[in-house]
Amino acid sequence: MALPGAIPLAASATTNLFAAREQMSFTLAFHIVLACLGVALPATILVANWIGLKRNDHDAIELAQRWSKAMAVTFAVGAVTGTVLSFEFGLLWPHFMERFGAAFGIAFGIEGLFFFLEAIFLAIYIYGWKRLPGWVHWWTGVPMFVTGIGGAFSVVSANSWMNQPQGFALDAAGKVTEVEPFKVIFNPATPYEVPHMILAAYMVVGFLVASIYAVGMLKGRRDRLHRLGLLIPLTIACIATPVQLLVGDTAAREVAHHQPSKFAAMECIQNTGAHQTEYIGGICTAHGVVAAIPIPDLDSLLVGFSPDSKVTGLNSIPNDERPPDNTFIHLAFDAMVGIGTGLLLLGLWFLYAWSKKRDIPRTPWFLRAVSISGIGAILALWSGWIVTEVGRQPWIVYHYMKTSEAVTDANGIWGAFIFTLLLYATIGTIAILVLRRMSRRWREGGEGTAEDMPSPYAPLGPKVET
Amino acid sequence: MSTAAAAILWTGATFYAIFGGADFGGGFWDLIAGDAHKGERPRAAIQRSLTPVWEANHVWLVFILVVLWTAFPQAFSAIFSTLYVPLALAVLGIVLRGSGFAFRSSVEGLQERRAAGAVFALSSLVTPFFMGTVVGAIAVGNVPPNGNGDAFSSWLAPAPLFIGVMFVATSAYLAAVFLVGDTRRAEDREMELYFEKRAVAAGVVAGVFAVVGLIALHSEGHYVYDRLVHEGLPLVIISAICGIGMLVVLATGGRLLLRPLAAGAVVAVIWGWFVAQFPYLLPTSLKISQGAAPDATLGAIFIVFGIACVVVLPSLLVLFILAQSDMLEHEH
Ligand code: HDD
Ligand code: HEM
Ligand code: HEM
Question: Which residue of B77, B152, B326 to mutate against A (max A Cβ within 10 Å)?
Answer without folding.
Answer: B77
